[in-house]
Amino acid sequence: MPRKTSDPADCLERYGNFRPTPMDHSGAFLPDRADWFVGPVSHNRDSGLLDESNWDAAVKVMTEDCGPEGEDNGWEIHRFGHWGPGWFEIIIARPNSPAAVKLAELASALDGYPVLDDVDHSQREYDGAIENIESEGARYSDGSEGWAAEVFTWLWHNEQRECDAVDDGPAYPSREAIVRALIALDKLSTDADDARDGWIINGRSIARQFIARRKALLAGPRFNIDTQKWEPAEPANHVHDYFNSLLRKVQRWNWRQGIL
Known about the structure:
Elements: H1 8-11, E1 13-14, E2 37-44, H2 49-66, E3 75-82, E4 86-93, H3 98-112, H4 118-137, H5 147-158, H6 175-184, H7 193-196, H8 203-218, E5 222-224, E6 229-231, H9 236-256
Antiparallel strand pairs: 1-2, 2-4, 3-4, 5-6
Helix pairs in contact: 2-3, 2-4, 4-5, 5-6, 8-9
């Protein structure tokens, strides 16, 4: 069961005992703050979306409920250089102050659920996903206003796994998925005809085209629209020649796009 307490001594660490990693000294650089309480959130150069969201949410709560950061209001933000993440910031609060109680309340909230502000965290995930879609798909889109948001919505309803967050970061949909969405939304750039023809494809789609072609060629006679004549089934080596030509076309397209 998560603890529910507003007593700082029950759920917060004293700065004199605090160290960011086991290889750091306890209570470094602030000897006159050794008895102050350390807040439950921090962030650094390498923080992900969750840590950044929780940090901003905690600072907002402390500011609104306790007043601006500073000794007069009983809480401070301290920034330190560090050999690992470059720098990190923490919140500390003076003992027997409303700020210390507020930090304890934040710690209790996080003990039962890891997100302080769901709306903020979700918005960061969404904004990051839109930025990644724009970065990955701009060369293929028609550039219309809001195209990246429409792509995200289409992926959410049709290929939701492409919208999964990645390692505490936003979703990063694949180039292939973005192009499929653009084609479905009729927002593919006129300069990306090769993409419309299906040459941004993965191994599975190559296999599907090969299997379909193999079935069509080996099943029996077929009608040639160009000659208006029935033609006999082609031997297997013709199918493999077709498969090889398909691979060459994919490689040429990738080369033109700078993929290879």
